Structure to design on (609 residues):
């Protein structure tokens, strides 16, 4: 559209586009108190939420990277759009008709991105219509044999690219799109005699970004290799709107359920996504012609609210073949980038979700996800299969191969459990396995470059330890406010360095001051100085109220660990044979649960950030 959008229309779009709803399309937000909402920033990688939205004022601000602005600025930055394109996009969502001022004699050029998206949408409509022509019979049969009826096909927008050189090109040219625009969208390519369609004689799946715009396509060939020597699967090339490393097929329809259930299921193909959703697994997504990577992790973490406070599940499904096992091992390394627990669901006979649904129906797919196992267990067992555990040499080799895997587990509290499990799988003593794990960790540390006397310190960005670090920082920086220090649970600090510092602080007679000169260790003194100057992670005032809230939260987390231990003990007790002990332990559990609930109310009631 030519002309400048009238200021009154811009104001209307800005005022009527609820910024929390718009931001919520990209980021899972939670209440931050005071009428604010917060989440993980979409503009930089972070482990604790510093991105705040104020709906009443229509603004957002990130205290980490300092990005901020109104709803128009957010969409411009998020989708890399011009001002005009952004206003047009928001107006379309509102169903509001814009008016353009042409009296000034100037005209605003139509945005490139909006034209590419429009061309993709027109192409998707064309492909969907073509699935009904006689020549598409093979494609319809392919879908039908895999259990997809007409309603499923229409819901996912599956289409057919005709076996012609320029069928799509002719139609879209007739709709006013230029060759340059079609080429920019990746819909055509240059042939020997001019531009030709990129996809021909293929089933086509439209790929949408998280907001629902069609940004590209994935296509599967239907002809035999003798007729078509192209790849089995062909995707849109990189374009201004199609960045395969930042896209997940099905995310536009799965995002709300992912945020609600705090679970995402990652499958391998388009038909697997279809089969999973139709079976009731509505959190399923797939990558688009590339391996699962860092950009995908960042997108999912924002939806899962994946931080030290909230945890969910990431479930990978892999084929049972060697390639699937290799993919699982890659996922093992990626696990360290999540706070959330990761799992693997592998069908014993090597069937993918689509094949499993064909053979066992919707229930079989749901059961596959329900039988998920922790990724750590899967990775360790995968390694064990490579060795003959009937031979002493095989068991020793298997131990040497799997001990480093346990050493890699991010959550230190899980390692002893897997040491015991590995000992059982190998038929070895726990002490032998534990020694091997510690040896592998020591070997790893000696091969890494570290600053002198700092290898014992925890990672300052470790999300699981962030709360412990914050409590120690305010204790050191605002000692006069820390009258509740003595109330902290004995097991509150899980990292040895933090617990060591807590022990030192406990020796101080005066709670209102910390005597640095009393520190007899240079490394501990250096650590104290580091925490004494590191900024406290809060946007509000450092007050008694704030310190009470984070202290309560720390105690609640510590009690949660204790509750887990008590529950484990109860499971091992027979209530009939050990009636008295069982009753005492159960009473202790009830008391702990009551204390934990009270602490949670205090922590979050005081506006903990």
């Amino acid at each position: 559209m030519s002309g400048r959008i009238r200021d009154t229309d811009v104001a209307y779009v800005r005022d009527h586009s609820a910024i929390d709803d718009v931001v919520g399309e990209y980021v899972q937000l939670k209440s931050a108190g005071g009428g604010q909402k917060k989440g993980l920033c979409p503009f930089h990688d972070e482990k604790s939420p510093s991105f705040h939205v104020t709906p009443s004022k229509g603004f957002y601000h990130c205290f980490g990277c300092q990005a901020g602005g109104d709803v128009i600025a957010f969409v411009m930055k998020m989708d890399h759009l011009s001002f005009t394109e952004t206003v047009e996009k928001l107006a379309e969502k509102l169903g509001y008709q814009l008016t353009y001022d042409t009296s000034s004699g100037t005209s605003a050029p139509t945005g490139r991105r909006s034209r590419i998206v429009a061309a993709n949408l027109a192409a998707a409509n064309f492909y969907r219509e073509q699935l009904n022509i006689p020549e598409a019979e093979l494609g319809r049969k392919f879908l039908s044999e895999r259990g997809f009826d007409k309603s499923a096909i229409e819901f996912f927008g599956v289409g057919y690219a005709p076996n012609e050189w320029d069928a799509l090109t002719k139609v879209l040219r007739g709709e006013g799109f230029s060759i340059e625009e079609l080429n920019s969208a990746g819909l055509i390519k240059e042939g020997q005699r001019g531009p030709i369609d990129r996809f021909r004689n293929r089933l086509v799946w439209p790929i949408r970004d998280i907001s629902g715009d069609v940004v590209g396509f994935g296509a599967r060939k239907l002809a035999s290799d003798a007729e078509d020597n192209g790849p089995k699967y062909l995707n849109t090339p990189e374009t201004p709107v199609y960045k395969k490393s930042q896209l997940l097929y099905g995310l536009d329809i799965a995002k709300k359920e992912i945020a609600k259930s705090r679970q995402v299921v990652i499958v391998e193909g388009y038909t697997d996504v279809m089969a999973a959703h139709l079976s009731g697994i509505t959190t399923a997504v797939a990558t688009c012609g590339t391996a699962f990577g860092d950009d995908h992790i960042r997108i999912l973490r924002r939806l899962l609210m994946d931080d030290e406070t909230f945890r969910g599940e990431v479930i990978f499904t892999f084929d049972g073949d060697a390639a699937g096992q290799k993919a699982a091992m890659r996922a093992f390394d990626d696990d360290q980038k999540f706070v959330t627990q990761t799992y693997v669901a592998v069908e014993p006979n090597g069937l993918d979700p689509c094949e499993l649904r064909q053979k066992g129906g919707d229930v079989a797919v749901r059961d596959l996800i329900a039988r998920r196992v922790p990724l750590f267990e899967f990775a360790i067992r995968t390694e064990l299969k490579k060795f003959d555990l009937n031979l002493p040499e095989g068991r020793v080799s298997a131990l040497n191969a799997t001990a480093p895997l346990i050493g890699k587990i991010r959550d230190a509290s899980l390692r002893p459990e897997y040491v015991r499990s590995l000992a059982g799988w190998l038929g070895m003593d726990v002490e032998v396995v534990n020694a091997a794990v510690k040896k592998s960790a020591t070997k790893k540390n000696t091969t890494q470059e570290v600053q002198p006397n700092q290898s014992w310190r925890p990672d300052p960005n470790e999300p699981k330890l962030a709360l412990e670090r914050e409590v120690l920082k305010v204790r050191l920086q605002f000692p006069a406010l820390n009258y509740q220090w003595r109330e902290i649970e004995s097991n509150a600090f899980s990292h040895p360095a933090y617990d060591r510092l807590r022990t030192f602080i406990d020796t101080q007679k005066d709670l209102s001051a910390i005597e640095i000169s009393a520190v007899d260790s240079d490394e501990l003194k250096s650590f104290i100085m580091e925490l004494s100057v590191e900024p406290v992670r809060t946007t509000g005032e450092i007050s008694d109220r704030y310190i009470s809230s984070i202290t309560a939260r720390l105690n609640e987390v510590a009690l949660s660990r204790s509750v887990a231990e008590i529950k484990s003990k109860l499971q091992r007790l027979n209530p009939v044979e050990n009636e008295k002990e069982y009753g005492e332990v159960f009473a202790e559990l009830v008391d702990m649960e009551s204390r934990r609930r009270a602490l949670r109310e205090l922590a979050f009631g005081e506006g903990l950030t």
Notes: Residues 544-572 form the longest helix (29 residues).
